[in-house]
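Hi,

Apologies if this is the wrong queue. I'm a grad student, and the batch job for O-acetyl-ADP-ribose deacetylase from Streptomyces thermoalcalitolerans produced an output file that my downstream script rejects. I'm not sure whether the problem is my script or the file. Here is the sequence I used:
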Amino acid sequence: MTSTTLTLVQGDITRQRVDAIVNAANSSLLGGGGVDGAIHRRGGPAILQECRALRASRYGKGLPTGQAVATTAGDLDARWVIHTVGPVHSRTEDRSHLLASCYRESLRVADELGARTVAFPAISTGVHRWPLDDAARIAVETVRRTGTAVEEVRFVLFDDTAYRAFAARIG
Ligand code: AR6
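Support response: The file is valid. Your script probably expects a header line. Output copied below for reference.
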């Protein structure tokens, strides 16, 4: 395994020039708000078309939380979008393993594709309400522990608060 470099960018993930962009999707794979909406808007209809085909062939019951699957990146400056479903945060149940699984499974799919550069958003920290500091800890620890041939994992944080939470973890 090559060593993976973790980098941080504050900005819009749909503007990244990388091999694969990870989408914080929902299990329907049919799009939504937040980063999911932005990726489908800028990537164009080819992404949704492949998502529909995946639903018809493999994910009739939806993509389970913590799993990942790739489609074309359409008009984005990337070759693939890797869709993963983050858990909704719960105060009563520890779902950290599911959030960690999103990062691990996305990197596994990236390896299968031969992607060398992969951009991640802060999965589950928007609509799914995961506290940023904890999400950043899980993201960074999981990527560091996962054996992968990906050379650069770029965390793309939309706002300053998210950027600072990840920066504190990466050091
Ligand atoms: N680039 C980078 N990060 C972004 C962008 C962007 N263009 N837009 C938003 N973020 P969310 P979730 C950040 O809600 O919590 C959708 O409806 C945002 O500030 O997109 O995993 C799906 O269909 C936040 O820090 O994803 C699902 O139903 C982070 O991305 C559900 O939301 C994640 O926020 C998934 O919820």
